[in-house]
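Researcher: Next entry in the queue.
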Amino acid sequence: METSAKPRLPRGVKLRHDDVRQRWTLLAPERIFEVDGTAAAVLQLCDGERDLGRIVAELAARYNAPPAMIEKDVVAMLGDLEAKRVLDL
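Model: Structure for this entry, 89 residues:
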């Protein structure tokens, strides 16, 4: 995945926090995915404006972690979501 890729949630896919159950969900047509807090933090940055490099930099600063480690995990997660057709790159 190129660092210039600008991931975003496609039309009809929404990231929502379920206050009653205290969990994050990714809602897609006829599907729902439960996501943990870390995945939700990544998905909140996937607005189609930020590129992968900027997303990684923001997460590395937020979590005080090496950018290379963050990038590896983010690329794997986003690739999986793209394969499930709930993320556009």
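Model: Helices lie at 37-45, 52-63, 67-83.
Researcher: Noted, moving on.
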